[in-house]
TrEMBL record:
InterPro entries: Aldolase_TIM (IPR013785), CBS_dom (IPR000644), CBS_dom_sf (IPR046342), TAL/FSA (IPR001585)
Keywords: CBS domain, Schiff base
Sequence ranges assigned to domain CBS in this UniProt record: 223-280
This protein's record includes keyword Nuclease: no
Protein's UniProt keywords contain Hydrolase: no
BP-aspect Gene Ontology terms: carbohydrate metabolic process
Protein name in UniProt: Fructose-6-phosphate aldolase, TalC/MipB family
Domain of life: Bacteria
């Protein structure tokens, strides 16, 4: 099933065609008016240079007028092999269709509301027969039954026409087009972007990314750049300032040689204040007793860190290199680049 973009928004048109597989673009005077277009011909020429196939209106009260409008637009420099002229179905419209097709040009007969109209379009050799599903449904018509009938008409009698599903209002319409066997569909960019979305797909993808990260990334490659370190001779007040400056919940305490003394956390601060009051603020960090911190060597994979987080129920792990502290690994760093 061919996939067209239905739009007149130049920005989203350029974005959409970066996909690389869209068949072409359908647009209407209504879309262009909505986008504030003031020079219709210049806009058409610009679009023709961006998209593989451009479907544009050819209008007129008589077949001769419609053909003249198509010729006028071709004279702007459009490639006849990459241009499809959209003509509202009517007796004059199918007559114009036949005249243009006889010259090797492509025609989309649209605004089809009945199987009889579709038959006339097919008999005239229309390249596309276009049913505006959303618009028909808004007006109370059974658009899906009509589209099914038009597909059957074309396939049963061997017409060369392609049935186009247009006026797409939701992603369900795309499913309808597929199930009905439409040959082509034209979709607004907002809905086209949603066609690949699914919550369970997103969950599965995130799991794959997370697990790949765990078994390919080393701890030292994932550690947070924020790593407040204080010497053992600084006061607790200075250490608190350091924690506040970095916005971190702990500081690493080292001796004069850079060897680890311990890790002082905001939890330790609350306990010390409860036990000794404000007087402890003037004590040096080396005067406190530290337990063995939860730590891991930077060369290990994140998978080992994940197991350690699970085993110890901590939120932060000290990262060391040959026993010396080099950073802190937050549990969120397991997921974030």
């Amino acid at each position: 099933m061919e996939l067209y973009l239905d739009s007149a928004d130049l920005k989203e048109i350029k974005e959409a065609f970066q996909l690389g597989f869209l068949t072409g673009l359908t647009t209407t005077p209504t879309f262009m008016h909505r986008e504030g277009v003031r020079d219709l011909d210049a806009t058409i020429v610009e679009l023709s240079k961006i998209v593989p196939v451009l479907q544009i209106e050819a209008l007129g009260e008589t077949a001769e007028d419609i053909v003249a409008d198509a010729d006028r637009q071709l004279a702007l420099g459009l490639d006849p092999q990459r241009t499809v002229f959209k003509i509202p179905v009517s007796l004059e419209g199918v007559k114009a269709c036949r005249a243009l097709v006889a010259r090797g040009l492509k025609v989309n007969i649209h605004l089809v509301y009945t199987i009889q109209q579709a038959y006339m379009a097919a008999a005239a050799g229309a390249t596309y027969i276009c049913v505006l599903a959303g618009r028909m449904q808004d007006q109370g018509y059974d658009a899906l039954t009509l589209i099914s009938d038009v597909v059957e008409l074309v396939d049963s009698y061997g017409y060369d026409s392609k049935v186009m599903f247009s006026s797409v209002r939701n992603t369900e319409h795309v499913r309808n087009a597929i199930e009905l066997g439409c040959h082509t569909i034209t979709v607004p960019w907002k809905l086209m972007k949603a066609l690949t979305e699914n919550n369970f797909t997103a969950i599965g993808t995130n799991q794959f990314i997370e697990h790949t990260r765990l078994i390919t990334v080393k701890v030292k490659e994932a550690i947070n750049d924020i790593n407040p370190v204080v010497a053992e001779d600084v006061t607790l007040t200075e250490a608190i300032v350091k924690m506040t400056e970095f916005g971190f919940g702990c500081v690493t305490v080292v001796d004069g040689a850079g060897n680890l003394k311990g890790v002082f956390t905001d939890g330790d601060l609350r306990r010390k204040l409860a036990e000794g009051g404000r007087e402890i603020l003037s004590q040096t960090m080396g005067s406190f007793t530290y337990g063995t911190p939860v730590s891991i060597e930077g060369e290990q994979l994140l998978d080992a860190a994940a197991a350690l987080f699970k085993k110890t129920s901590v939120d932060t792990i000290l990262v060391t290199e040959n026993g010396k502290p080099v950073g802190m690994l937050d549990i969120q760093d397991l997921k974030n680049d």
